[in-house]
């Protein structure tokens, strides 16, 4: 925001007749920055979907389930994955729509509304993905524990030993929290930086609108 600060200082040094021109210049600069931020949100969301797709292809669970003679589970996992990708594609569409809308906005008030709308959409997207990560972890643990023959020894220990059950549950919860924390940190850094910059633009627009 260095360019914006310099422009505002120059604005304050000039006479009142230059005030309206300065407001227009500040608006154009904020508009351009906001459009660029939303474009990057759109691009990053696409890259994220491509990353998840690559990971699913490289680490497919189909062979693992076939080896355990439980191919019927593959269909349910495919439905789960299709649903997850479907929702993510809907969010990507909203990001693209927000980008197009902000790029075409000519009103200060409307740009402020569009910025808040974009921030809310990104927040919903992040919390959806974090929720899916937790749910996916629970499903993966359940399939491994319920259908993997190598888990029979552990299941026998759990049914006869309360301490073993507590340790197993604690391990599963800790692993889930580690995954959740890692992805939360990723989203906090990547999307958090963009959202903070977008909100800074909103606050500058609010000063102009007063």
From TrEMBL:
Q: Which UniProt keywords apply?
A: Membrane, Transmembrane, Transmembrane helix
Which segments cross the bilayer? 37-53, 73-96, 125-145, 165-187
Name of the protein this chain belongs to: Beta-carotene 15,15'-monooxygenase
- Where does this protein come from, organism-wise? Flavobacterium rhamnosiphilum
């Amino acid at each position: 925001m260095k360019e914006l600060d310099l422009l505002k200082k120059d604005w304050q040094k000039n006479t009142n007749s230059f005030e309206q021109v300065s407001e227009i210049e500040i608006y154009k600069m904020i508009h351009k920055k906001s459009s660029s931020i939303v474009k990057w949100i759109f691009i990053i969301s696409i890259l994220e979907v491509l990353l998840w797709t690559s990971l699913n292809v490289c680490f497919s669970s189909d062979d693992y389930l076939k080896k355990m003679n439980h191919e019927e589970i593959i269909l349910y996992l495919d439905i789960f994955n299709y649903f997850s990708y479907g929702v993510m594609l809907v969010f990507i569409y909203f990001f693209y729509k927000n980008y197009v809308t902000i790029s075409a906005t000519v009103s200060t008030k409307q740009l402020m509304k569009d910025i808040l709308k974009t921030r809310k959409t990104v927040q919903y997207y992040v919390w959806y993905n974090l929720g899916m990560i937790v749910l996916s972890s629970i499903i993966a643990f359940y399939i491994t524990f319920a259908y993997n023959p190598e888990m029979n020894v552990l299941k026998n220990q759990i049914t006869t030993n309360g301490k073993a059950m507590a340790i197993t549950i604690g391990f599963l919860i800790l692993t889930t929290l580690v995954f959740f924390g890692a992805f939360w940190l990723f989203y906090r850094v990547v999307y958090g930086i963009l959202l903070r910059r977008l909100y800074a633009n909103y606050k500058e627009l609010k000063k102009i609108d007063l």
